[in-house]
Amino acid sequence: MAPPAPVDAAATRALSLGMAPGEGDYGYARPTNSWWQRTLDEKCLSRLRALLLEFDLSGAEARGSLVVSDLGGSSGANTIDNVTSIVKSLRKRFQESRREVPEFHVFFNDLPSNDFNLLFQQLASASRRYPKEDFYAAGVPGSFYDRLFPHSSVDIFLALSLRTVPETVTDKASASYNGKRMWLNGAPPFVLEEFRKQSMEDLRNFLDSRAEELVTGGLIFIIVVIAGDGFFACGNPDPLPEVRSLTNQPLQYSQLMEYAWEELISEGILTEELGSTFNFPVFFRDPEDMKLLIEEEYTDIYQLQRFERVEVLEEDYPHAIDLDFVWSAENMVKTGRSFLGPLLTNHLGPEITDTYFSKLHKILEIVCRNLKRIFSAYAVALTRL
């Protein structure tokens, strides 16, 4: 018998970057685990629908087809509803202008670990919900930092959450080593700078790839989640104070993630060596950095059409959502596990991952009511010149 092939750690980590599969308790496709994303999408996509009123239809009309791709959309109702909203808006424009309606092609992209089987099962149900909004659908597994499509073949891209981790922050020999932190709470400025530099390199790769794939006049619409001062903000002082001292303070979810992580290390459940080689692969880039990069390096490729801050307040949440349940410790743990679970299981194994979320649950039971309930993002739209 041949010896097992060596494990490519970077490749294994990349495969775990997707959301948790399925519609079970911890699956991202479960509506109560992705409600915040749905609310943010709805508010941002109203800006996209306004842009589509000015979108040039002549190219698609001449070709007889129009191609849309949702990049990094995972699975679940959110990604299906997002592309359906785009198709519906464009179809209406063709009909109202008495043009021949083209065939719509929709490509759903995410990493290979995404639950594409569930996505296409849901698409079968969605076709019954939107019988007049049919489109040809296909999945495209792969990283959107690389080329995914042939040259000049896509009309509209929708993208969210451009993310990765710089290798230097988990390297003890590096000046940018992030210690035993799992993310950026309390991280020194040089660690934040490494994440910022990596995020800009990623953004260049993303924009370069899309520039090859977009048709002339094609549109990229990016929802850029930012830290702001809300739910996802990071940067609390280090070291962390005792949890119960925070019961009367407004909190970010990321703070509580870090508390649970530190407890695992302090109790010896997680070795410092294992704890120091994990960083949550999300960096909320400064949108002004993004704008500056586009204006300095891409003015001959893209025209910046929209750059607008969008805030989701509690009154924006759908009325059908039971907010008492959504903000309960039980549901906040499930929500966290839907996006963090696959990464931790890959790094720590299932047993320690279960222990981590048990600790997070106990912390949330104490301070959950103090979580900030505001989300901030920028709606960014670019047209290919």
**How many β-strand runs?**
7
Order of helices and strands: HHHEHEHEEHEHHHEHHHE
Q: Count helical runs.
A: 12
Largest sheet: 7 strands, mixed
* Termini Cα gap: 56 Å
Radius of gyration: 21 Å
Low-pLDDT segments, ≥5 res: 1-17, 230-240
Helix share of residues? 40-55%
| Strand-pairing-aware structural class | alpha/beta
Which term fits the overall shape? globular
Mean pLDDT: 80
Strands ordered across the widest β-sheet: 3-2-1-4-5-7-6
Strand residues, percent: 15-25%
In short:
With 385 residues, this protein is of the alpha/beta class.
Question: How would you describe the overall organization of this protein?
Answer:
- The protein has 12 helices and 7 strands.
- It has helices at residues 9-15, 35-52, 58-63, 77-96, 116-129, 189-213, 253-266, 272-275, 287-297, 323-326, 329-348, 350-367, and strands at 65-71, 103-110, 136-141, 154-160, 214-226, 302-312, 375-384.
